[in-house]
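Revision sheet: structure tokens.
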Amino acid sequence: MSAKIIDGKEVAKSIKLSLKPRIAALKEKGIVPGLAAVLVGDNPASQTYVNSKAKACDRLGMYSEVIRQPASLSQEELVEIIESLNANPKIHGFLVQSPLPEQIDEPEITVHISPEKDVDGFHPFNVGQMLIGRGKLLPCTPHGIIKLLEYYDISTEGKEAVVVGRSNIVGKPVAALLMQKGKMANATVTIAHSRTSNLSEVCKRADILIAAIGRPNFISADMVKEGAVVIDVGINRVDDPDTEKGYRLVGDVDFEAVKEKASYITPVPGGVGPMTIAMLLSNTVTAAENIGS
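Predicted:
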């Protein structure tokens, strides 16, 4: 029996709809939630992503700004832009789009972002708040994964969750969220990665398997337990001369094979991806509410 497909577009749409009354309430107080994105260089994927954020803001009646800078931008110049956004009352949340040019120290840049405007949830203060279970601005993709599980009423209580990948953006924070005390948490969590011994056996233990390793079709059917919930975070371009663009997008999971063993699975595209922008918008509204209160 094939797995049930977890539709990230549907869940993202429901989250955006839930933001409308909150945005309306803020506007009654004279506050228009504002999101800015700083784009350094001309990475095509980053440009597409930033443009999607701006369009999503516009559809919800939020204010948005895209600050485009050349790849030659210095660390000091970027810090000046961040400080101006920290002080800008029209901007309630902002992010510096990754990847950044090699002359930029990304962790150092993150520290300069005001924690109350850090809608990516990467500032050390917000990471610390998340770890102790008091986070208000949570990392977008990990929080989006939790929301997907919640929408489909997939229990995490007492389940064994395996996260394949240990990045600061997805792997570590989603593990932290799943191991919290509370709703949509209380899981027993293992973080696996490229250096994990017997990785296949570790993955097979998972009731909930989250793949965020950045390798196309890495998770094969023989690594998945029958009936597991499989969340595929990966977005990888693979060459395909039969397509108009010459490539297609695939996840970290061998979707066609794994869907025959899993109970639920996210597709790529259309699974986790739409949730990232939805949670970014949600964080911006939350930041506006916190700043305006």
